[in-house]
Structure formats: C-alpha cells, structure tokens
Amino acid sequence: MTTTRKQIRPFHNVLVANRGEIAIRILRTVRRMGYGTVAVYSEADRASPHVRAADRAVRIGGAAPRDSYLNIAAIIDAARRAGADAVHPGYGFLAENEDFADAVDAAGLVFIGPSGDAIRAMGNKAQAKRLVMAAGMPCIPGYQGEDQSDAAFVHAAADIGFPVMVKAAAGGGGRGMRLVHEAAALPQALASARSEAEVAFGSGELILERAVIAPRHVEIQVLADSHGHAIHLGERDCSVQRRHQKVIEEAPSPAVDAELRARMGEAAVQSARAIGYIGAGTMEFLLDREGRFYFMEMNTRLQVEHAVTEAITGLDLVEWQLRVAAGEPLTVGQVDVRLDGHAIEVRLTAEDVPAGFLPQTGPVLRWRPPADGHDVRVDHGLVEGATVSPHYDSMVAKLVAHGPTRDEARRKLLRAVEHCVLLGLPSNQGFLADCLADEVFADGKAVHTGFVQERFGDRLAERATPDTRTLALAAFGALAADMPAGRIVGPALGQHVARLTLGQGEARWEVRLQAQASQWNATVRRLGAEAAASALALRDAQWHDADRTAFSVECDGMLESAVLALQADAVQLFHAGRAWSFERVSERKSRVAEGGGGAVTAPLTARIVDVAVRAGETVQAGQRLVVLEAMKMEHTLTAPIAGVVAEVCVQAGGQASKGTLLLRIEEAKA
C-alpha cells in the first residue's frame, strides 16, 4: 500500500492546532527553528499560556472541543487568516484524524504529520492489525470483523477464550477499553465501550483481543522521511497505568535487551514502510513474560511520552517532524542512534485518586514546579489564577528526569515530584511519588500493566492522614495569613488562645495556638478520638513572599516550609512533599444532606450521558444509575443503598456541576 500525494515542501509559519502544554512544547521548537508561530484557542482558553506563547493567536470557537479544537473548518480558516502555511496537529484532538490531514493538504497547507491515507490505514485498530499481519507483524489473537453485532462479539469471545479485552477500533488513550472476565459481563462492556468510543472518537466500532495476563506495555518510536528512509529510536516502557491510561513512562525498558530491541525495532520499521509512512509515529506492543511481543496499535502522531526518547537519544522529535514535512531527508541512520542513560516521565493529572482517579476541575490557586536545581524537564500549561476546565484532558503537566542510570533518573524524578506544588484542586502528585518510591518499581524487573492495582490495591481508596506537624502548620498559616509580610512575630496572633478546627472527610482536629514570648505553643487534638493531644513549639516564622503564600517556621527544633492557599471554607497546604486540603469547620456553611445516604450527587462537573432509572423504580445497592462524561472519559454512578428512586433531577444530554443532586433514593423499609 502507498499513500496519496501530500504537501511536502518548505514553509514559513506554523499553526499549532492544539492547546495547553502540548501547544507550548511544540511552539518552543517551532520558534527555535526560526518559523513564525500561530496558536488557536477556544473561548475557555482565552487566557491560556499557550495563547501568549505564539506570535499570533486566533479564537476558533466555544469551550466544547467539537466547537473549537475539533472544528476542522475553523482551524483551516484560522491558518488562512493568520498567514500560516503549515499546521502541526500536536497530540490528541485532531492529531490522528485523516479527514483533518486531507483538509489541510486540500487547502494547500503542509500537514506536519503523515498523510491522511496513512492515518486512515492505522487509525482503525481492526484494519491496522490486518495490514501489519500481512507485513509479518505478530498480533494478539482476536476479532476485528465488520459484523459489529453483540451476537458476533459473543461468538468470537467464546472462540478466543476469556478473559478478553474490548477495545475501540478508533483512537487510543484507554478510552473505549474494557477487560471482561466472563461471558455474562460482555454485553454491558460492549455497550459501555461503544458509548465512550463514540463520545471520544466519533466511532463506536469495537474489536476484541485475548487478554494477555500481566504484560508490559512497550512501544517503538519510528521516524520516516519522504525519501524512503525509516529508522527506529528504541523503545519506551509504559507499563505503569491506571484505567488503561499511562501514568509513568521510561526509556529504555528494563525488560528489553539489545537483541529484543533490534527485533521489535525491525518489525516496527517494516510495518511503517509497508504503509508508506512519513513522519514520527509509534508502534505499540504488549510484551509477555516469555519475551514474546504482540502488536496492539500504531499512533500516527507524536506521543505524550516522546520526551523520554528525546532525553536518551539527544534528538528533538518535533524538529524532525518539521524537517521531514519540509521535504528534508533523514541525516540520522539506524547505526547513528545511540541510547544514552535512562529517562523517566510522570504525568501530573488533576484527579482525585481515592475516588477512583476521578478527573477534577477547579481553580489553580498555587502552581510551583520544581526549581531548576532538580535538573528535570517540566512541560506544562498551568498558571496561577486559571481554571482546569471540564472540557479537556485531566493531564496538566509532565515531569521528565534523565540520568546515567535508571536509579539515578528515578531518584531525581522522585525528589522533583515531591517539590511540585499544585493547590486548588486534587491531583495525583502524591500517588506519583508513592509509585516512584515503591520497591518493585525501583527494581524495575517485575513491573507490568497491573502494577498499580497489584502494589496499591485497596490502599488507593484510602486518603492519607496528616501528621501533627502538617495540621499545626495549616492552622498557623490560616491564622497568620492577615499578618504583614516578612517575619511573623509572636504577639501578632494575640496573647489569647487562637483555635481552629480542621476537617478532612469525617475526621476533625482542633488546633490551638498561643503566643508566649518568642514562640507559639501549638496543641493538636483529634476530636472524637481517645488519643492524647500533641504539643509543639513554633518559633522564627517568616513569610517568603509579599503575597504571603509561602512561609517557614521552626517546629520543635526542625525548620519546616509550606505553601498556603486559603479559601472561604478551606485551607490548602503543601508540606513535606504532599498537598493537603482541609475544611475550616468553624467557618463552614451548614449543609443539609438532602436525602441522607440515598442522595446521589455529581462528583465532578460533567455532561449527563445516560440516566438508567426512573422515579418510582426499585433499585439495588451497586446498580447502575447515571453515566457522566467529562475530560473525555465516562463515569458510571451506582446506587449507594437499596430502595426506591424518590426523584430524578437530571436528564440525558444535560449538564451537572460538581455537587449537584442527580437523584435521590429512599431506603427500602425493613
């Protein structure tokens, strides 16, 4: 198979058809190479940093992706208006949309990526498997037929054998993917996967694959030009995942030696040549315990995790995308590719980990990436005062560390993550630190795609308990927040005892502070617990900035530092490598728990995809009630108790803000 003619020629101004850290990262290289830069933005991103990172910026529509970043006509028009003669799609949104690539070419613009035909060939997992199998690629046994009926899938699953993996034929990122252990669960998994795939990719087509138990997820980076040259840049290991989405990536893989790397790389390059691929792309594989590898899919774009490949090869992949798109030949041959040391990347996401990695939206009250001394690369699009929107992906930043050995890279990244401050909304920062510190991850040899569940299991649902020092600092910061910047002197808080009750979930702590001469005596007591109160001595407190957001204080002879963010009814604190959020119980508005334990509220701002019950219907605990969609993912809410649905407050197609009452169940009478 060969691709159709695409625009390959020199260009002068590049429009980046993406947002956030993706756009900023690409614009950085585009500008370095001397090209003019154009950004596009939605109404929700009017004040986003990527808008200011470009020479020109064009508003392309409303907040919803379909009205802006997925609006092909609007992006083409923006290129024309801004004088761009090339378009880089970034990764995500339209990056793997063949119609977009074709539209850019048809408009006489250079698409910085593969041809529409190549995207079309590999963008559908079913067709991609058929093509690469013809090129000799090993594939997982499965079903990728045109018959998309439930009956066809049930029949195929019986032949394949359980467990099976249901996957969306289009797209990636774990969306539209379900692991099914038994035949009875297959119909519901098919329905859920179709729905999520249609929302994420505009196609509900599915495939089945035999589930490979405890595999590693390993991918090969390929690079090909328009002159017939193609090489691979080694592998990345992306086995640490949650919800089938990558969390930590590294290069090279601890499980791949030189011989296996050569075989996987050759298979990837041969498949890329077979479809006439041009540009940067990634072949994704599952690697089983015996060292056998199986093709999963090809990503016809730059990957989020491309930075670890850049770190160990010294190559800028965006630069090579630009050079190839302009018609330049590769000047790097396979023998020139050298892997230097080890690199590890983590994805910082706005998610509530104990709530099942539930995506979160809200204000960015504090954002302090690790200082330069940590020697890490930080790609982000965050700014204090902005808001993380429900319309886009939950990833807000990525941190990359490189070192001569895997363990040095791991240590550097762990320290950097522990100094990465994000306050205002929950994030996975603490979880990332726990993963990097885990002894199995540190060893590297036994990591697989089930690592997170295997190593953390039920602990994922547990919220960390703050220690006495953290509670004392949270109360001290809240009570001293109105004091002038600079040194905080004892009498500033008054000679009387100041009290503050802090809450986290059902837990409550009372903190008392009393100024005495040159120090404060702090007493921390857990309310409702039999444990004795803890006493601490605080002294030599000082604000480190004029806005009083960061302070230090000596606590029982040890200097402690913290970053603070205050809200009307909350105290948010970053201390000792973790972000904490406490309710100010004494100032909290009284809330009536409407409906008691039977109230089902929206855990995040989202669109209502489906309401599965009606008022008056009897439901069982755990029964599916409502399906929400936010940040490109579906979230199913189930009944907290058995009973009768007393009222339904929402309908499919509507929107719900975080905390909105969706429906109420009256508990069944005994």
Report on this model:
With 670 residues, the chain is α+β, with helices and mostly antiparallel strands. The protein folds into five domains: 13-112, Rossmann fold; 141-210, Dna Ligase, domain 1, CATH 3.30.1490; 216-461, D-amino Acid Aminotransferase, Chain A, domain 1 (2-Layer Sandwich); 468-587, 2-Layer Sandwich (Glycoprotein, Type 4 Pilin); 596-667, Beta Barrel (OB fold (Dihydrolipoamide Acetyltransferase, E2P)), CATH 2.40.50. 24% of the residues lie in helices and 33% in strands. Strand 16 and strand 17 form a beta hairpin. Helix 4 (98-106) runs antiparallel to helix 5 (116-123) and helix 12 (406-417) runs antiparallel to helix 13. The longest helix has 17 residues, at 258-274. It is globular and about 80 Å long. The model is unreliable at 587-595 (pLDDT under 50).
